[in-house]
Amino acid sequence: MSRTRGRSPSRRRHATPGRIGRVGRQAVPGPRVAIALLLLLGLVSVLLLDGYLRAEVGNDQRVRSDASASEVPQSVLDGGPFLSFEGGVAQTRSVPDKTIVLTFDDGPDPEWTQQVLDILDDNDVPGTFFLVGSMISRYPEVVRRMVDDGNEVGVHTFTHVDLSYQSSSRITREIAQTQLALAGAAGITTTLFRAPYSSTNDAIDNYSWPVYKKLGAMGYTSVFIDTDSEDWQKPGVSKIIKWATPRTGKGASVLFHDAGGNRAQTLKALPRYIEKMKAKGYTFTTVSGAQAAQTERSTPSAQGTPGAHATPGDAPQSNPDQAAHRTADTTTRWEGRALLAAVAVAEWTVPGLAAALVVVGIAVMGRFGMMLLLARRHHRQRNRGRFTWGPAVTAPVSVIVPAYNEKECIANTLNSLAASTHPIEIIVVDDGSTDETAEIAESLGLPHVRVVRQENAGKSAALNNGVRQARCDIVVMMDGDTVFEPDTVHRLVQPFADPEVGAVAGNAKVGNRDTVIGAWQHIEYVMGFNLDRRMYDLLRCMPTIPGAIGAFRREAVLAVGGMSEDTLAEDTDITIALHRAGWRVVYAEHARAWTEAPASLGQLWRQRYRWSYGTMQALWKHRRSVTDRGPSGRFGRIGMPLVVLFQIVTPVFAPLIDVFTVYAMIFVDLRASLLAWLAVLVVQLVCAAYAFRLDGEKYRYLLMLPLQQLAYRQLMYLVLIHSCVTAATGGRLRWQKLKRTGEVGMPTPGTELR
To answer: Is pTM, for the whole model, over 0.90?
Structure first.
């Protein structure tokens, strides 16, 4: 939406809580910037946490195989499934004869683990579950039940990565985070560990051996297996039972899975397996129970504290089958609960944001489709050879130029008006400038130019003064830093041949488009603002007449009370007021004005911040338009919802598209995500190219579109979010006078600054 340039900070009022009110002199307080940044930081943190729960950054799925085990003692490779390092020396223990240790990997899972626990309860046997920390964080209630039922738990890393590829700090983090999740879920830590992708002793190699030694020094017992049901392959119930059965009379640590995929076959095989082994005289216990029976000790020796979150000297649980458990200290429990709370927020937030993303995506694509369809229709309708608004408007018009410290630009502005092909009077309202603006205007000696001086009162007051001074029935309003083409005024006033037309919006163009910011704004003006105006024109609900170029019936402006000082967006305010008074507002695409884009990102921020905040003020002021009846209620019924949806709600949520794209690139699939982003960029490029064609613009500026999407659009998102925070908190905002260079000069005939 095109806007006018900044004015004086004087005589402005401020917004109050619960009401997007009037504007004050005071700048936006720093805390509101902090709130906007905290909202962004919170969103990023939630996404990072969710991504980490599902897959470590980079989605590391490497699994080592066929590595040498020359450095691993043969006694470990051939020993029992329980590996510890008592006194720094590797020792292994076996499961007693006629004893089964049921172990389960990859849980907890809210569906499959719960059913496994039901089966264990029904058969009165315990299990030892090696849990993935990210899954614990997501389903803590399953872990609580698991421990309360008398089962034992162990660490299976936090993100299920092959630790032989990871750094020492990453290994420590994987263990510590899992222990923290356990402490939050069940108030315990554990001394048991099983590495992903290494279920049997002979899987230990030269790369993983240092990992086991490190964990042994931390007090962990690494648990392997004797028999593997290989239920993850889904070979059928009979084979699962067969492969899980140890040699006759021998004890065994047996592997099943309670998560990681469809475990329907596991659920069918498990009760039959238990029944079969009991019939053979086997008993079932946990890892700690097997070690206690074998060594007559209640807990394995430990040379250090298990994990970063276990407390030295903590007593084991009273249940001997849970001797590996340690009661977590109070600090660790609260840290764990904080982790679970953060995960719960992420678990609810990310799907919610994803759903919002779908809605935003549909709305954005719908908007593009509607804009293109209606813009094409508008262009064809208004450019037919026989199209006319009625008899040509040839009567003189008044051009009002409000000016505050425009010494760099005022000469170019007035010289461009002097070349007008339409009869005009020019009223320069100097709003208390502290430079030579008024003197320069007078020194030009141009015909039909009047300079009206007033004390500094703001742009709205200057425009109202100009309207009172005007001698013509039609008034054209422009900025003091804008230049017109010779036929601009004539083209702009032709729609007034229709007596229903109360105002006309012109086509604002960026003159200094050869700068980076200028090129970005040029694309935005052509692709966004002008396509929008074509659409709103056909729908008869134009929301804004740009301050840089707009024409009004003088009687209409006076009838609605003139330019209001209630908002920073006096152009949007007066446009909506005219709609509600029953006037029609149209768009004259061939009436062009050339403006100067801000020279720096700071100035761009201030300009857009005022625009977006002023728009919110105007919409809030005219919120009751949604209940207006008859033709005058058309804006409230159609325009108001469209503006709120497409210029506030959708842009506020639009950053989700970019945020989720980055999220997917980091945590999901870089190539697929990048291709999806490029596909969206191509769609935008096609839309922009069509908009450039309608406006007769050169396509070379579209080369800046990718950079605009990466930088400029993000800045606009932050500006809008900042404005929303200011509006919601009743902040103050002053007019921003932007520094101008005067580089946009008089259009040369035939070139028109193209």
So the answer is: no
